[in-house]
């Protein structure tokens, strides 16, 4: 009898929707022991793998600098093909399941196709479930403006609604109704209200993959990712001025900002997230920063304004 195939969970959702936050919650569950996590990031400076807290029996690896749905599809296939010996101890495979976190701009359909049709992958792996995280607060506006978000909704077996604590109940209800129209097959879960159970990692019914027209080349290619690094610790008042100036760049053109900051006098790295209009309060990592990196993923932003804003961090 051949060995059972390894289940793969595809975790997707638009930039900043809450994928990594969910992953961190999931990885603390016993059901997620022995998990290989593959994190794909759009920016060339990968930060997400540093933001994922995991146990020693979990392996986290990253694919950065493009999307697994296009530029890095071959890299994903190679990672999966090689994983059983690359992530092995004493000749024994170190994982029993795989979670792939896509970039927030990925179209899940080509990734699902690779999983299903590459014979060397399909013989070892099986798709267990596609989870799409949706931001309760910004979800409707994102869906109206960002074609990739629609593709992610369409591919979902489960729609996981994050940030319901930030949205009014009527806003959540309107989003749920919209999601129900866009993908009536997917089960909707409010991540704040419901416990994360193993059932979340399995599809609610038969797996269905529906196709929507892909975004046009123009829509995809107008996206750019810029990273900005400073090697020396940042003065706290500079960081505060930079945070205060967030409204000068915030908006739909700033799809995502992620920063790991090395602030003078702080022993631990500080993490700051921005998603379109929203800036989240800084958080600390359990590790020193050794330099600061800010990644901005933008579509049609005023570059001068962005540069001025970033400049606040290190201007003498
Ligand atoms: N209030 C609130 N904030 C949340 C929730 N989920 C995520 N966030 C915050 O939203 C910001 C972005 O969350 P991430 O988990 O990094 O989002 P992501 O989808 O992984 O982002 P990308 O990897 O850039 O696509 C962070 O500051 C999180 O703390 C939630 O349920 N409630």
From TrEMBL:
Q: Name one GO molecular function term.
A: nucleotide binding
Recorded catalytic activity of this chain's protein: GTP + H2O = GDP + phosphate + H(+)
**Which superkingdom, per the lineage?**
Bacteria
Q: Does the keyword Chaperone apply?
A: yes
Q: Which UniProt keywords apply?
A: Chaperone, Hydrolase, Nucleotide-binding
Question: Which Pfam family is one of this chain's hits?
Answer: cobW
Concerning CDD domains, the annotation shows:
CobW-like
Question: GO CC terms for this protein?
Answer: cytoplasm
The segment(s) forming the CobW C-terminal domain are: 223-313
Q: What does this protein do?
A: Zinc chaperone that directly transfers zinc cofactor to target proteins, thereby activating them. Zinc is transferred from the CXCC motif in the GTPase domain to the zinc binding site in target proteins in a process requiring GTP hydrolysis.
**Family, per entry:** Belongs to the SIMIBI class G3E GTPase family. ZNG1 subfamily.
What name goes with this protein? Cobalamin synthesis protein/P47K
């Amino acid at each position: 009898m051949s060995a059972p195939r390894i289940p793969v969970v595809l975790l997707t959702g638009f930039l900043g929707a809450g994928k990594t936050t969910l992953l961190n919650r999931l990885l603390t569950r016993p059901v997620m022991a022995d998990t290989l996590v593959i994190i794909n990031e759009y920016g060339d400076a990968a930060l997400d793998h540093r933001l994922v807290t995991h146990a020693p029996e979990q392996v986290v690896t990253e694919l950065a600098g493009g999307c697994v749905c296009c530029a890095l599809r071959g890299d994903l296939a190679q990672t999966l093909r090689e994983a059983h010996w690359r992530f092995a101890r004493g000749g024994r495979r170190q994982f029993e399941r795989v979670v792939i976190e896509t970039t927030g701009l990925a179209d899940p359909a080509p990734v699902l196709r690779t999983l299903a049709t590459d014979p060397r992958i399909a013989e070892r792996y099986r798709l267990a479930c596609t989870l799409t995280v949706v931001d309760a607060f910004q979800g409707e506006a994102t869906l109206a403006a960002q074609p990739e978000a629609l593709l992610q909704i369409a591919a979902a077996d489960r729609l996981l609604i994050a940030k319901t604590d930030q949205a009014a109940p009527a806003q959540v209800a309107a989003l749920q109704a919209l999601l129900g129209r866009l993908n009536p097959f997917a089960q909707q879960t409010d991540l704040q209200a419901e416990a994360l159970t193993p059932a979340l990692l399995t599809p609610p019914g038969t797996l269905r993959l529906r196709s929507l027209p892909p975004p046009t080349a123009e829509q995809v290619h107008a996206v750019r990712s810029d990273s900005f690094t400073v090697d020396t610790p940042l003065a706290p008042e500079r960081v505060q001025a930079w945070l205060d100036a967030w409204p000068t760049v915030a908006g739909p053109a700033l799809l995502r900002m992620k920063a790991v900051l090395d602030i003078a006098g702080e022993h631990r790295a500080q993490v700051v997230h921005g998603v379109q209009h929203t800036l989240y309060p800084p958080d600390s990592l359990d590790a020193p920063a050794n330099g600061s990196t800010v990644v901005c993923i933008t579509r049609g932003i005023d570059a001068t304004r962005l540069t001025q804003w970033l400049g606040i961090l290190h201007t003498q």
